[in-house]
Design a protein that fits this description.
The complex is a heterotetramer of chains A (105), B (496), C (637) and D (477). Chain B has 496 residues and is mainly α. Chain B is built from 19 helices and two strands. Chain D has one domain. Chain D has a two-stranded antiparallel ribbon. Classes of the chains: A mainly alpha (105), B mainly alpha (496), C mainly alpha (637), D mainly alpha (477).
Chain lengths: 105, 496, 637, 477
């Protein structure tokens, strides 16, 4: 069955996602929120892969598998990230990006 | 083991001996022995060379040896000497050995001092024997870096500043030089599909004029900085002022000669057309700074500054003569390099001795030293006379040759600057005699100067050795002239 | 005939220099003096022998030929420019040989006594040996470069000897002045040599003097300001000569040079070195004469004449006996230059011969005057004429010899000076009346100032002396006597047979008129001096007061020194050297430092980028990515 | 493809996996008090592994081209192994005293080896999936290592910065890959760009993708994380980051550009050109005024990366082999410097440049090692660094990048200035309170001696360079 979705639409959507993610990444004042923004970025890529595979290159499943791997790895990444953030929270009870600027110049 | 590599082996072995020796007293002895052997060996080399020439060997380079090093780039350990190189090697060894003697009483970290001194010497020797641009460049940098430590650790005054400045300016120069060398390599003739760093090979098929015009300035300035080319000479006064005696000797006596030698062997020899095209510009720089340096020296009161500026003036004369692109003046400039090497070395040695006794280098604070330290004072007068070109001393022979050679150019620019160069000897006389009059003659100014210890044996050894060479060349210059001239001849033929 | 032994004439003094120099300090007392003296004695003997052989014992018809007695290649620059060291014998070089060795020998002898009490005696004799060697090398030179080399060496030895009392500031100052002024002249000398030899293609005198050959080998010579390159070369060379011979305006070093020991003044600054300039012009006489119809020669004549008058005027006012003699030397050398200047070649070569003759006689009586003055100074321990008076009572020998010298220099027959000076005046008379007039007046002035010092020193009222003056010992009186005999009789030598411009006998005819004139003016001078100074009186004082500013100007040597002082101090040092030094330290070096500092400053300006806030970093990355995209787009389109 | 192939071709991966499992097992068995016994085991095993990795293997593909290897790749892995081995030697004392007591030594080694295996896969990845896995595996655990000092805020901060920015980078990179995928429809390197013309989308993808890699090599302006992380992380990790992961990233970049994306060369050459200029210059300018040795070395290694790009720009065999050669030299040189920092930190806990004042008088050997390392970094003969740099410039000049070379040599001069600053502190100056004499342990000594030998020999010993070149030639056939 053929839905009316064009690849261009997908790319536009994911591009928007991507930039929302970046925006969030740069602006959020809470590390957890930053992590979430990061997820947006990565998932934008994942969606790209899957949809491109689905809509353009139907012959094989490279994109889909790539998508799966991306999800897995993203999970790992978040896990490690959260652990470190947790540790930070233990050291000084705050997860504000502004706090962690002791290393500079 | 071929003849020339030994020139590198001896200092390296000496360095190793120093590193593994532990007795504090023995360092200087080891260094002295090593360098004496080196000197004897280079004299032997000279004789060997002469005999080979006698035997009728007319090839440009002798004792040549070429070992492939980095095949992909066709980089070779290619060595060989002609008369010029032999002369420079002899100069280097003599200056080095007297430098070792002068620094006999070095207090702080003697081992490290002699090690760096000898590493420097190694670099210089390697530079003079190498016929491969890569090797040459390698030895060049090897020779420059120890200066930083030598000035920085054992220097006086604003030593850190001086050392850093000297190193950066010379290394900046070598950066330019590197670009020039790469250019030479890339435009060198293809031998079995490979470019080459070999000087001889490049010289026999130079690159197109347009490329030469691009790369010539890089190489000329790159070496010129080391040869105190205006306006890149300012490292040398500060460097001299802060450097310990022996280092000033090597620095002015040998290191700066590498500049002139490089200009001569690489810039002019490998890019002659460009040299002809651009000589006017550099002629103005060099010819101008002959007078410039002399007048600069006129106003200094610090002995080392005076001699630093006089070096600027004399080395400008060297570059000036090189730019004349004429057999006689080239020979003259090599002569001038050698004679100036000996003279400045002796100058700085004596300054060191005087400073050791008076604890000042300010001319205006001294006076009447002739009475208390007659030997050193007399030596100073003599070397001063040599430096202002008194006949019978090496300086005169060199300068006369340069002037005669330079005068064979009837071009207006050449004429004007030749006249300026000749008149500079007047200014030289003024600043030299000013020092002699103020410092050595006249009444003794300071109470403490009445009793100074006389020159010690090692000081005398160094001074007499150098003065002997100066006089020897001055009275019998012809053999040296012949030696150099015979090597200059083919180069000139090739580039014209 | 073998002349190669002549090499020993210069070598022996060199030997004495080397030995005295090396064993300086370890030498027993007096040893050095006798060593030098004996060395010079031998060379003197040799040179007399040489002269005898050359003039009387060489079979020659026509001119005396030039002999290269010995030579070796010093530096073989190119086949054209080969620099030889050699010994070149011809009439003038042999004449100079006689002068130099004899005077030097006598001075050595004299110095043994004069310097007996000095500490650095060995040093003194070493320098003396060095000087004699260099001077001999100079006169024997077969080519210009050798001339120049020894020219420099005599300069140095003169520097060292003037600065003999090196702890005396005035002596040091004088020494430096002498060296630097002459060195300045030598700079032009060297340029002249190079310029000339570029066209002549050789340094050898015979090639240089052979103008026609040069002209046809070069085709047309470049002309600058109406003078050919050769003339310019000769003029530059003459500057060198003028420097050494203390011609105006390069004379300022000579009076100060009197700071040296008196025998040195006698040897270097009266008899030998200062006439080197004259000798040089004589050497190149054919060239001077031929190029541009002797234009350069006219310059020589003018400079010479002016200097002679100029110096004579100053000499009348000086109170220091040695300075008077110094100026008189300058004036007499002026005479010699005039002689050369007005001379022609061949049969008109009277001036040449006369000048050489005067050089010869002048060496004798001027050396005598200086040594005599030395004796006086030795006796009264002062240079000033104020401290001398009626010394004739105490030191008869000195008195007689000094008187002879004065008569000689004043040109009173039958003493030597009369003949030579008279010949010069004759030559001048034929050439140019004005020059003759000046010379004639100068002769009068000379007589006046010489007898002024004579009367002031040996007559006048008795002064109070620390200890009674007396004639010096034999080593000092002997030279006086010898020289006195020489300056009395040298005039009778047949110079016109020996030393002539073309080496052939020159037929001179004694011109009674001009002789009478010059004798007359001489006598006038003497008489005036007699009236003024025979018996102490206030008249000289009054006269000088009446002259006022003029007198002051003259007494201060026309303020020439002050002028030079101003030029060197104000212009060269303040206006040129100081700015250059400043420029170098601040502008050139400043730029280099600026480059370094700018780099460091930039790095501290941009440090803010590394703010430490990772969100800023992220933003930076984003910008970078977008920037790259834009940049690439720009390229792809 | 037989099972035997999988072993021979993947022997590095297998052996590291075995070591990994062995360590895991022993760690589980050992109780925390005896943890330190783990250390010699780890080092010993890994030493064997390293030596083994130098034997040339055989070339081939696995898993339908997802994994491919050849002698050059083997050699690259060997380089990485050597680096890690030296780091293990140098970190011995630190692990023993800081980690083992808290029973964290095992974790450290496991993470380290995990990262290393990730790099193996990254280097010999045959398609973008494998590449991505390798890339993440060689990044994420490092973040954990960076934050290994749980009690230190700086360490944690560094960890956070690394993990987040790395995430961002990989996100960008993934997006780029996806765009390229959209054009090519293929993820295998082997025939990645066949029958595709250069659409703008592809170029966009390429740019985003390269940005990701540039981040890992810490090229300006993707370098911001590097100094902070380097300064915050434990020295062992810092040296790992600055040497090993940088090396791995450069290798894969080299492989991708030269063997996968050669058709796009004029595009990526433009990108690398500007990146290299920026990297050299900015890196140097920042390094000028650093006072903390680790941060100082961080910026210096950023600048060095800029020089490496010259080699990649030169491309072809000579360029590639020069890059590998330079990396090899760089490994020894940089680790020597970090080793000295580590030794001094272990003994005195100091890592500021001022603390090094007058070091030569008390610790001549250590400071000599440091001086040699710095001179080598500055490219002073006869140290190896000189040859590496010279050849890079030579390669670049060979392609006519004279302007770039000129910029580079000027940067070398600037870099000389700041490399001389520690030398000045250690040799030229004398301090009234210098650091006491340090007796570093035997392991540290072995590590340092290895480095010094490398610095002195590698440059002069030309056959090595010929060998690498021959490998590169094989690979590029």
């Amino acid at each position: 069955m053929d839905s009316g979705i064009q690849i261009s639409d997908i790319l536009i959507v994911t591009a928007i996602m991507f930039f929302i993610g970046v925006y969030g990444f740069v602006t959020r004042k809470n590390l957890i929120a930053v992590m979430m923004a990061l997820e947006l970025i990565i998932n934008a890529a994942a969606i790209n892969f899957i949809m491109i595979n689905k809509l353009v290159f139907k012959t094989n499943l490279h994109g889909v598998f790539f998508g799966l791997f991306i999800i897995a790895v993203a999970a790992v990444e978040v896990a490690i990230g959260l652990v470190i953030i947790l540790n930070l929270y233990r050291l000084r009870d705050s997860i504000d990006p502004e706090e962690i600027t002791t290393l500079k110049h | 083991m071929d003849r020339l590599t030994i020139l590198i082996i001896i200092p390296v072995l000496t360095v190793l001996a120093l590193i593994f020796s532990t007795k504090r007293k023995s360092y200087r002895v080891i260094a002295a022995i090593g360098m004496s052997i080196q000197t004897l060996y280079s004299i032997y080399l000279l004789l060997e060379y002469l005999s080979i020439r006698q035997a009728g060997n007319t090839s440009e380079m002798v004792f040549t040896r070429s070992i492939i090093w980095f095949k992909p780039w066709n980089i070779r350990y290619e060595i060989g000497v002609d008369g010029i190189a032999v002369a420079m090697i002899l100069l280097t060894s003599i200056v080095t050995v007297s430098g070792v003697f002068v620094s006999w009483r070095i207090k702080d970290l003697p081992k490290e001092f002699f090690v760096s001194l000898l590493v420097l010497a190694t670099g210089v020797f390697g530079f003079f024997i190498s016929l491969d641009l890569f090797t040459m460049f390698l030895f060049y940098e090897l020779a420059v870096i120890p200066m930083y430590l030598l000035i920085g650790i054992w220097g006086s005054g604003p030593r850190e500043y001086a050392a850093m400045k000297l190193t950066l300016m010379l290394m900046g120069a070598s950066a330019l030089l590197l670009v020039g060398i790469l250019g030479l390599y890339m435009h060198s003739p293809l031998i079995e599909g490979q470019h080459t760093f070999s000087i001889q090979a490049i010289a026999h098929s130079p690159m197109a004029l347009s490329d030469q015009l691009f790369f010539f300035p890089f190489v000329f300035i790159g070496f010129g900085v080391l040869g105190a080319l205006f306006p890149f000479h300012t490292w040398s006064p500060d460097g001299h002022a802060s450097a310990p005696t022996a280092v000033s000797m090597l620095h002015a006596g040998v290191l700066m000669k590498m500049g002139g030698y490089g200009v001569f062997r690489v810039a002019l020899y490998l890019m002659p057309e460009a040299a002809h095209e651009m000589s006017w510009f550099f002629l103005i720089l060099a010819g101008g700074s002959i007078m410039y340096g002399a007048f600069g020296a006129l106003r200094q009161t610090d002995l080392k500054y005076i001699n630093a500026y006089s070096s600027v003036s004399h080395l400008a004369l060297v570059l000036f003569a090189l730019l004349m692109m004429d057999a006689v003046s080239w020979t003259g400039s090599v002569l001038q390099m050698i004679s100036h090497g000996l003279i400045t070395a002796l100058f700085f040695a004596l300054i060191g001795m005087i400073y050791e006794r008076t604890h000042t280098r300010d001319v205006t604070k001294m006076g009447g030293l002739m009475k208390v330290i007659p030997f050193i004072a007399m030596m100073y007068v003599m070397v001063g006379m040599a430096s202002l070109g008194l006949p019978g001393m090496s300086g005169f022979a060199a300068e006369l040759t340069i002037f005669v050679g330079a005068f064979q150019h009837s071009g207006v620019l050449e004429r004007v600057f030749t006249v300026i160069a000749v008149l500079s000897i007047v200014v030289t006389a003024v600043y030299i005699l000013r020092v002699v009059g103020k410092m050595l003659m006249g009444p003794i100014k300071t109470e403490s100067f009445y009793h100074m210890d006389k020159a010690r044996w090692y000081e005398k050894t160094a001074a007499i050795l150098l003065l002997a060479c100066i006089l020897g060349i001055g009275i019998f210059p012809n053999w040296l002239y012949k030696l150099i001239r015979e090597s200059v001849e083919p180069m000139i033929k090739l580039i014209q | 005939m073998n002349w190669s032994y002549t090499i020993w004439i210069p070598l022996l003094p060199l030997l004495s220099f080397v030995i005295n120099g090396l064993f300086y300090g370890r030498m027993p007392k007096k040893m050095s003096g006798w060593l030098g003296t004996s060395a010079l004695g031998i060379s003197t003997l040799l040179s007399w022998v040489t002269a005898w052989k050359y003039f009387f014992n060489t079979p020659h018809q026509g001119p005396y030929e030039d002999i290269t007695a010995w030579h070796t290649t010093w530096m073989h620059l190119t086949d054209r420019f080969t620099i030889d060291l050699g010994i070149y014998l011809d009439p003038i070089s042999i004449m100079m040989l006689i002068v130099v060795t004899t005077v030097s020998f006598l001075v050595h002898l004299y110095s043994i006594g004069y310097m007996a009490t000095e500490e650095g005696r060995n040093r003194y004799f070493a320098w003396l040996g060095l000087f004699s060697f260099s001077m001999l090398g100079l006169v024997l030179a077969p080519n210009l470069i050798q001339t120049y080399m020894f020219w420099e060496l005599v300069g140095v030895s003169s520097f060292l000897l003037i600065g003999y009392y090196y702890d005396k500031p005035s002596a040091v100052k004088a020494a430096l002045k002498a060296f630097i002024v002459t060195r300045f002249a030598d700079g032009f000398f060297l340029i002249g040599i190079l310029l000339y030899s570029y066209y002549s293609g050789s340094f050898l005198f015979e090639d240089i003097n052979n103008i026609p050959a040069i002209l046809e080998s070069n085709g047309s010579l470049p002309v600058f300001m109406g003078l050919s390159a050769l003339t310019w070369g000769l003029l530059l060379i003459f500057i060198g000569g003028a420097g050494k011979s203390a011609m105006f305006p390069l004379h300022i070093w000579l009076p100060d040079a009197m700071e040296g020991p008196t025998p040195v003044s006698a040897l270097i600054h009266a008899a030998t070195m200062v006439v080197a300039g004259v000798y040089l012009v004589a050497r190149l006489f054919p060239a001077f004469h031929a190029s541009d119809h002797g234009f350069a020669l006219q310059i020589v004549a003018i400079v010479g004449t002016f200097s002679s008058l100029f110096a004579a005027i100053i000499a009348m006012t000086q109170m220091d006996i040695k300075r008077v003699l110094a100026f008189s030397t300058m004036s007499q050398i002026g005479y010699m230059m005039t002689g050369l200047g007005v001379s022609g070649i061949g049969e008109e070569g009277l001036g040449y011969t006369a000048s050489m003759f005067h050089l010869f006689t002048h060496a004798a009586f001027k050396a005598l005057l200086f040594l005599g003055a030395g004796a006086l100074i030795h006796a009264v321990h002062s240079n000033s004429l104020k401290d001398m008076g009626s010394l004739r009572k105490y030191m008869p020998i000195s008195h007689i010899t000094f008187l002879i010298a004065c008569l000689a220099i004043s040109g009173i027959p039958p003493f030597a000076g009369f003949f030579s000076k008279d010949l010069i005046l004759e030559a001048a008379f034929e050439k140019n009346k004005l020059i003759y007039a000046v010379g004639w007046i100068t002769a009068g002035l000379t007589a006046f100032y010489m007898f002024r010092i004579y009367f002031m020193a040996f007559w006048g009222e008795d002064k109070v002396y620390a200890h009674k003056p007396h004639d010096p010992g034999i080593t000092m009186t002997l030279p006086l006597i010898v020289l006195a005999i020489a300056s009395a009789l040298a005039g009778w030598l047949p110079f016109n047979e020996w030393v002539t411009s073309n080496h052939e006998t020159l037929h001179t005819h004694f011109n009674i008129g001009s002789a009478a004139a010059s004798v007359a003016i001489g006598l006038v001078g003497i008489i005036i001096a007699y009236i003024l100074y025979k018996n102490p009186s206030m008249t000289p004082q009054k006269m000088s007061n009446r002259l006022g500013v003029v007198y002051q100007t003259v007494k201060n040597k026309f303020y020439v020194d002050e002028f030079y002082e101003g030029v060197t101090q104000q212009v060269i040092l303040k206006r040129i050297a100081t700015p250059i030094a400043w420029f170098d330290r601040h502008i050139v070096d400043g730029t280099m430092n600026l480059i370094g500092n700018t780099t460091v400053r930039i790095s501290s300006i941009i440090k803010g980028i590394q703010s430490g806030d990772f969100q800023v970093y992220a933003f930076g990355i984003l910008i970078a990515v977008i920037g790259l995209l834009v940049w690439l787009n720009y390229f792809i389109q | 493809m037989t099972w035997i192939d999988t072993i021979t071709l993947m022997r590095n991966e297998w052996s590291i996996l075995i070591i990994f499992l062995l360590l895991l097992a022993t760690e589980i068995l050992l109780d925390d008090r005896r943890q330190h016994q783990l250390i010699p085991l780890a080092i010993g095993l890994f030493a064997v592994h390293t030596i083994g990795s130098f034997f040339p293997g055989k070339a081939g593909e696995l898993f339908g081209g997802m994994y491919r290897t050849n002698d050059l790749l083997h050699f690259m892995k060997a380089i990485l192994n050597t680096a890690v081995l030296i780091i293990l030697f140098q970190s011995y004392h630190w692990v023993k005293t800081e980690l083992a007591p808290h029973g964290r030594a095992g974790a450290f080694y496991l993470l380290l080896f995990a990262v290393l295996s990730g790099m193996y896969f990254l280097i010999s990845s045959g398609d973008f999936i494998m590449f991505f896995i390798g890339f993440e595996l060689s990044t994420l655990p490092v973040a954990a290592l960076t934050a290994f000092h749980l009690k230190e805020i700086r360490s944690t901060e560094a960890g956070i910065k690394l993990i987040l920015l790395a995430g961002l980078a990989s996100g960008i990179m993934l997006y780029g890959i996806s765009l390229m995928y959209a054009v090519t429809g293929n993820l295998y390197f082997a025939d990645f760009l066949v029958n595709t013309d250069h659409e703008t989308l592809l170029i966009f993808g390429l740019v985003l993708f390269l940005s990701g890699l540039a981040f890992k090599i810490s090229l300006v302006p993707f370098h911001f994380w590097a100094p902070d992380v380097y300064e915050g992380a434990p020295i062992a990790v810092t040296s790992f980051l600055s040497v090993v992961s940088k090396a791995a990233a450069v290798f894969i970049l080299l492989i991708l550009l030269l063997s996968v994306l050669p058709e796009l060369s004029e595009i990526w050459k433009m990108i690398l050109y500007i990146l290299s200029v920026l990297t050299m210059t900015v890196g140097n300018l920042f390094a000028l005024r650093q006072t903390n040795m680790k941060r100082f070395l961080a910026f210096s290694s950023i600048a060095q990366a800029g020089f490496i790009l010259l080699g990649i720009l030169a491309s072809e065999a000579v360029g590639a082999s020069t890059v590998v050669y330079f990396i090899l030299i760089y490994v020894f040189t940089n680790l020597a410097a970090f080793g000295v920092v580590q030794a001094i930190k272990d003994a005195t806990g100091k890592e500021e440049m001022v603390d090094y004042t007058g070091l030569y008088r008390t610790n001549p050997r250590l400071s000599l090692v440091m001086v040699l390392a710095l001179f080598s970094l500055a490219g002073i003969p006869p140290m190896a660094g000189f040859f590496g740099k010279f050849f890079l410039f030579l390669a670049a000049a060979g392609k006519g990048y004279y302007t770039l070379v000129l910029i580079a040599v000027i940067n070398v001069t600037i870099s000389l200035y700041y490399y001389l600053l520690p030398v000045r502190a250690m040799l030229l100056r004398t301090s009234d309170a210098p650091l006491a004499h340090i007796r570093s342990g035997s392991m540290m000594r072995i590590g340092l001696i290895l480095c010094v030998v490398g610095i002195l020999i590698l440059g002069m010993y030309s056959p090595l360079y010929d060998y690498i070149l021959s490998l590169t030639n094989e690979w590029l056939q």
